[in-house]
What does this fold into?
Amino acid sequence: MIRFPALIAAVVVAASPLAATPPMDELRDAPAAKPAPAAAVIRIPRRPTTQRPAVLDRRIESKIEQLLKRMTLEEKLGQLQQLGDDGKGGHIEAAKKGRLGSTLSISGAAKLNEIQRANMEHSRLKIPVLFAHDVIHGFRTIFPIPLGEAAMWDPEAAEKASAVAAAEAGAAGLRWTFAPMVDIARDPRWGRIAEGAGEDPYLGAAMARARVRGFQGSDPSAPDKLLACAKHWIGYGAAEGGRDYNSTDMSLRTMREIYFPPFKAAVDAGVATFMSAFNDLNGVPSSGNAFTLTQVLRGEWGFTGFVVSDYESVRELIPHGFAKDAADAARLGLASGVDMEMVSRTYAENAPKLLEKGLLSQAAIDESVRRVLRQKFRAGVFERPYADEAAEKTAFLKPEYVRLARENAARSFVLLKNEKGLLPLEGPGRTIAVIGPLADDASAMLGTWAGEGKKEDAVTILQGLKSEAPAGTKIRHARGCDADCKTTDGFAAAVDAARNADVVVAVVGETGDMNGEAASRSTLDLPGRQLELVQALHATGKPVVAVLVNGRPLTIGWLAENVPAILETWHAGVQAGPAVADALFGRVTPGGKLPVTFPRTVGQVPIYYNQKTTGRPPTMDDWVKERYVSRYQDLPLGPLYEFGFGLSYTTFRLSDFALSATSIKPDGRITAKVAVENTGARDGDEVVQLYIRRPSASVTRPVRELKGFKRVSLKPGETREVAFDLGPADLGFLGPNLEFGVEPGIVEAYAGTSSSGGLKAFFEIVAR
Ligand code: BGC
It folds into this structure.
């Protein structure tokens, strides 16, 4: 089956136990590699982006220039202003005067048509308003939160969900979404980890591309498409202490290698806009940062779209201590490359004076206006300024959308534990006690940033289990406590229900409000006394299945040790209930994998799989025997569940890991192939993951880096060969001077089913 002539013996790296050891134990197997002399580094030019100015449409550019010639300064500044509904009709008045470039957080065809009419019927130049909204994981049909979506490890499925979101939002008159949020997050205390794709740049880039494609399609002017927005540029996810809006300080290497890639992927996928972040970055706030907004984004990457500030983030340059006053904030925002201002009005109010004083150039304003108009043409608003109010009536929650929501929800679930095959709960006649604060909480199913999602549309886990249970199943329910679980008053009824059941499904975790924006937490434990509730249920002696509803990794060590089954379901959307039923009753086999590390305790944070080895990597789980190594005295090695981890109701085996060559040139390519077999008795999905590592190089490299993955569905006994093609973009890295290149030396490749263990092979990159 493996057809390569040059096979290199692959070795099996012991898959770590559940409480995974980081892959440092594998370092011992590495062959001694000669360090590559810096002079041997071969520079491979970066691939050109799809957004070089050369691809600009000349016809549109000339229309833009004609408009620019006719615009007054006020009208130009109007194009750079985005406003929400202030409740006093301010946006309507601004539209009439041609001073409203865009709106946010207003949706619905009739409402938006009214604003557009004010603009088209009264403004001098009739430049249509661009309507934006946070359509993050669905508009009315709410899909799993983005962190859950990433857990599918299936970009195509994510693309489909974004396409549905775009179709619904487009019908509601919107033309632009503030998504995808592509911030890398290595700190689960930060509540906004829920909105992104987790900790890894490769997975994050794949999800970014998929979601941009889903929202924009090949032509964002189609009525069922939206302009997308890569946010929050940049470093927002690295907020110190995980405290939202806090400052970030990181090396340029980390910024470029870890935080940039999903944004670059969005640019390459043709994303229309970027949003500048709230945070201070190495001493320069992101919304006034010429290095990131202009030098990198436009200079290096050739981005031709426009940048919108985050909510008042231009005005916030003042409290940052970066701008003296509002005029100074406007100057810094515009000069650094923030084209459109969200909500605050420092541009509109101060730019005329700044121009007069020579503190700002007309050229800078014109360039920002050009960028905004270019995307308005691209969004098709000049040809089609109004939404179809009749079509909107039948646009939402179509059966095929709801079906996809159910499929994606089930695809996002990660089975963390399943002792003695407790799951699935098959067969008739069981009594199931469904307990917990989140079992019947419709809002918690939707999660944070749920667009125009309605809790009436969401099917809760209790409802799903009731309607989908096998014949003869009895369901008992008790809440136990609220999500913040301050008292134990409801525990007795919950324990009583558990005692009278065959199995307990404990639905615990977070409400949607407990994560997302401004929802940082200093602990990752189950909120309040929820753990005590599960402990009381466990004490009945009945088997407990913990179903987690949450938007961040939680510290669930007690559950991992004591309850026989744990299913991570995130905030799974409108079809959470039926999807949980599909998984628990075995109609679907969970196949998701963690897109982020689950720590043992909050004290381990930041903890992520692609760490460095250090000079003293620990290799054994015994601190007395091995004291002076990099580890905690009071914790076993590694995380609770590693990145890429997830179980199944069936079993898989990887074999025949082979590389197409023993050595390649720096500009060469290599293919890694591995066979995956379903060795169990049920249909199931495995996510085959490919990692690489440089055991020595001119700069230290991570213990592993994800470079490929593929989710495959297999029937019992079925085998599939999965191939990964690696080239300079995958094998290169930033050298000592932060220049990208491919260095000669040994490369280790790992094929696995998580970031730990797996099969291992080597090849060498040889100088030309
Ligand atoms: C958030 C953005 C969001 C914006 C508009 C801000 O507070 O940081 O992610 O797009 O509001 O709602």
